[in-house]
Design the sequence.
């Protein structure tokens, strides 16, 4: 397989951007909280999306394709269950959490 010029240029731009983002994050990190929690400056929406993306990446990139490969299309019901489970989590667990936290602090 030969690499074409547009492919090499695109990869070089991607690699440069990734390294630039890495250096920017490295220089802006001062404490452990900065590294782990973004200096506690991220909003609840960003934090929730990050947690959701971390959760979904595991089952979307490894679990579901592995089950489909192993057992065939009959395992496609897993995606439906995972979507319903994620929705139920957001609806019934994530929604009441701030209410419970405020009551416990009093």
Sequence:
């Amino acid at each position: 397989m030969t690499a074409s010029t547009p492919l090499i240029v695109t990869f070089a731009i991607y690699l440069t951007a990734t390294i630039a983002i890495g250096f920017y994050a490295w220089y802006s990190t001062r404490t452990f909280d900065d590294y782990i929690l973004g200096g506690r400056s991220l909003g609840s929406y960003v934090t929730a999306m990050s947690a959701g993306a971390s959760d979904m990446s595991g089952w979307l990139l490894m679990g579901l394709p592995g089950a489909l490969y192993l057992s065939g299309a009959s395992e496609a019901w897993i995606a439906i269950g995972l979507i319903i489970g994620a929705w139920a989590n957001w609806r019934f667990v994530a929604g009441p959490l701030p209410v419970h936290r405020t009551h416990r602090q009093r």
